[in-house]
Specification:
The complex is a heterodimer of chains A (87) and B (287).
Chain A (H helix, E strand, L loop, with lengths): L4 H24 L20 H7 L1 H4 L5 H12 L10
Chain B lengths: L4 H16 L10 H7 L17 H13 L6 H13 L5 H12 L4 E4 L14 E6 L2 E12 L6 E7 L5 E7 L5 E5 L9 E10 L6 E2 L4 H4 L5 H26 L1 H4 L6 H13 L4 H9 L4
Parallel strand pairs in B: 1-4, 2-4
Antiparallel strand pairs in B: 2-3, 3-7, 4-5, 5-8, 6-7
The chains are: A mainly alpha (87), B alpha+beta (287).
Amino acid sequence: MGPADASIVKLYYSELLQRTMDFGVEIAGPPGQTVLQKPASSGWESGAWALDFIGSWEWTIPGGTSEIQRTIIGERGLGLPREQRGD
Amino acid sequence: MVTGIADVRDELRAVARDLLARGQAADGVPWRQLADSGWLGLEVPEELDGAGLTFAETVVVLEELGRAAVTTSYFGAAVLAAGTLAALEPAAGRDELLRQTASGAQILTAAVVDGTDDGLGGAVPFRIEDCPAGPRLRGHAGFVPDAAEAGLLLLLALDPAGTPVVVPLGAGTGGLTVTPQPVVDATRRFGLVRAEAVDLDGGGVLGFDGDPRTAVGRAGAGVAASMAKSYACAAAVEVAGTAMQLHGGMGYTWESGIHVYLKRATLNRSLFGSPAAHRRRLARRYT
C-alpha cells in the first residue's frame, strides 16, 4: 500500500459524496427541503437530500480536511517539495 | 444631502444594515417597523402611499435581509404581492390592495406558481369554473412564500374563458386552506395553498393590464431572469459551501452561522425553477 493511499480514498470518497448529495438536493427540488430528520441509522446517503448535502461537510472537514489530504498526497505520494512552513 | 437615485440606495442600505444589525434577525423584524421604514411600498406609486421607486431599490432591502438572514414576510408582500398587483389593470380594488401592501395594514402574498415542480411549465395553479350555483375556484400551489402568515392571498387563476386573472382571498375564506410546509432552512416559511370550490359570488376578480406574460418587465426580461437565476443561485451554493470548508471545524458548528447561508442558498436554488430548468428554457432559443 502506498504512503498516501488512505488520503486518496478519504479525499475521493468525501468529495464524491458531496458532489452526489449536491446533485441530489438540486434535482429533488423544494420537496427535498421538507425532510427535517434523517431516517434512524440511515448513514450519509439517507435520501434526505438537503440534510445529506449539509452533512457531507462532516466528511470533507474532519479527519484531515480535503486540503490536508491533498498536501499529504502531494508530499508523500508524489514526492513533491514540502509545503513551506508558516514560521 | 440626498441628491440622486444612487444616494437613495446608499442611504437605504445604510439604514437597513443598521436596523438589521441590532440583533433582531433571529426573532424577525417587527412588521410595524418594516412598514414605518417605508420598505413595504418602495415600488408602490406615491399616490397610493408608496415611495414610487423601482425594483432596484427593493433589491437593496432584500440583499440586507439576506445578509442578516432575517425571518420575515417581506418577500411575499413587497415582492410577490406588490409585483403581481403592479401588473394588474388599475382599478379601485387593486389600488386599495396596493395601499394596504405599502402601509403594512395587511400581510399579502401571491401564489403564482406551484413550487412543487420546476415551476417553469407555465401552468396556472388555480381555475375558476362556472357551476350552477355560481363561479367556484379550485386548484393548489405548493411552496408559496409566507402563505401561512398572510392575511390575504393573491391567487393566479384561469377564468372560465381561459384568461389569466388574479383572485384576492382572505385567509379565512371558506374552502381555502393553507398548510405550513416547514423546510430545512428554518429562517424561511412556506405554505401549501389549496382551494376547493371556493365561492366567488362576491366577485373581486382582478384582470391583468394587457398580456400577463409581458405585463411585467421588458421584452427579453425572461431570458435575463433565467440567466441570472441559474447562474447566481448555483454560485451562491458554491460560495457558501466553500466558506463552510474554509472555516473548517469552526465553519461546521451551529454557532458559526455558515450553515444558515448554505441552507438558504440550497433552498433558493430550487425555488422558482432549478438552474437546469432555466437552462432548458434558455436552450430553446437555439433550436
